[in-house]
Amino acid sequence: MAKVFRPSTRESSILSKIESTKEHKRRLAISSLRDCMDSLANAIAMKLVENNLVETTNKNSLQEQIHGCLEKLTRASDFDIDYQVAPVRNLLTDYNVVSLYVTAYIIDEKCLLAHKDVVDVFGSDEDIYLTVNQQVKKHLPV
Predict the structure, then answer these.
(1) pTM for this structure?
(2) Which of 40, 62, 75, 90 is a Cys-bridge partner for 139, taking CB atoms 3.0 to 4.6 Å apart?
(3) Phi, psi dihedrals of residue 54, rounded to the nearest 5°
């Protein structure tokens, strides 16, 4: 017979604290995004173009697209966020939700690549995530 696993109260409380800490970091990152959305969108767009990860005919248009993505993130429900980041969630074990959401937006063919000013997206998913995350870390305290 298989042994039934029943976590102790101590294990349950530790797991609960870990989950609540992750949720708190997620909410804090999304709420603090509202304060620096314009500068963050500009920084991400510039870095993507500088690192030759996105080829575009108009950098301002790319910045507007990323700003729209960030604005959508601030209004999205938890389900919508999880649905958007699901294809790229396995890039890292401990990820920043803002960076992962923007990375998923850039990689998704129906979002950024469908725009008329974006020629192509280059680089691996990890390269794009690291570039986006570098800028998010500079602008968000989380």
Answers:
(1) 0.82
(2) 40
(3) -130, 130
Q: Is 2 left (phi over 0), alpha (psi -120 to 50) or beta?
A: beta
Q: How far apart are CA 37 and CA 84, in angstroms?
A: 19
Predicted pLDDT at 30:
81
Distance CA 2, CA 25 (A): 38
Number of other residues whose CB lies within 10 A of the CB of residue 6: 7
pLDDT in tens, 40-66: 999 999 999 899 888 888 888 888 989
What's the pLDDT score for residue 108? 81
DSSP symbols for the chain = -PPPP---HHHHHHHHHHHHHHHHHHHHHHHHHTTSHHHHHHHHHHHHHHTTSEEES-HHHHHHHHHHHHHHHHH--HHHHHHHHGGGGGG-SS--HHHHHHHHHHH-TTTTTTSTTEEEE-S-HHHHHHHHHHHHHHH---
How far is it, in rounded angstroms, from Cα 42 to Cα 35?
Answer: 14
97's tokens: 């939700």
Burial profile 106-136: b = 16 or more Cβ within 10 angstroms, e = fewer? bbbeebbeeeeebeebebeeeebbbbbbebb
